[in-house]
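Re: [ENG-882] Designed sequences occasionally contain unexpected residues at chain ends

Forwarding the minimal case from QA. Structure tokens:
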């Protein structure tokens, strides 16, 4: 099966792409600015095709998916991983700050789902996994714009699961604290509050994505928090 992973050059997206390639998927690597890192991932995935696009622009999304279909054929699967993250006092958030987050985290996720689903319907089946966040489940005071975008991804997942059934399943993985050796005091406090008493590993997010891409098609509209139990604290 072929799959496009957005934001696949770095961090969680990179690990998702590597894991899916290891498990036999034909992976397309999307990136925006991180070309060198994307090339490294593509090599590690056995020469996977690279696709550059600015997902904050719908015309770029449509061009991206047309190129993917031309080079890989209609998609079987899509992993919407690309996202932006900033920390701001909500009283200081300007329109540009709001749009910076929502244009990629929510708007792009929808239009990528739309374009991916159009291709999947040509094949009569498909799987979409949207990466949301613990921040879409639990409120974070200094991330109101981010939390709103990821809560939107969760509701979008549920709505599209109904709209695209029965041919296409749509599910979401919501990561908790995932460590990339960049833990500050605030992040450490979240880790300390996590029942599993550790940060998550990106490989654990990738495993959850793989689960949804290979699970029974009767599983749709679900949100899987991979967070060590923190969402329920």
């Amino acid at each position: 099966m072929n799959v496009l992973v957005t934001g696949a050059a770095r961090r969680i997206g990179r690990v998702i792409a590597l894991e899916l390639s290891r498990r036999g998927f034909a992976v397309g690597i999307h990136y925006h600015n991180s070309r060198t890192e994307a090339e490294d991932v593509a090599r590690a995935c056995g020469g996977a095709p690279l696709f550059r696009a600015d997902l904050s622009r719908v015309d770029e999304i449509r061009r991206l998916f047309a190129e993917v279909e031309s080079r890989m054929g209609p998609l079987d699967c899509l992993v919407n991983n690309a996202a932006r993250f900033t920390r701001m006092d909500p009283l200081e958030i300007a329109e540009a700050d709001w749009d910076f987050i929502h244009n990629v985290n929510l708007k792009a996720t929808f239009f990528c789902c739309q374009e991916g689903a159009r291709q999947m319907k040509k094949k009569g089946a498909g799987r979409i996994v949207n990466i949301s966040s613990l921040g879409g489940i639990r409120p974070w005071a200094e991330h109101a714009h981010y939390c709103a975008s990821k809560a939107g991804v969760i509701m979008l997942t549920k709505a599209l699961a109904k709209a695209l059934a029965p041919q296409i399943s749509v599910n979401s993985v919501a990561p908790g604290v995932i460590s990339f050796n960049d833990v500050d005091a605030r992040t450490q406090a979240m880790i300390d509050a996590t029942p599993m008493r550790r940060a998550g590993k990106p490989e654990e997010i990738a495993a959850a994505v793989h689960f949804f891409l290979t699970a029974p098609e009767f599983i749709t509209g679900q949100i899987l928090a991979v967070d060590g139990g923190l969402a329920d604290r």
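QA comment: On inspection the terminal residues look reasonable. The chain has a mean pLDDT of 96. Proposing we downgrade this to a documentation issue.
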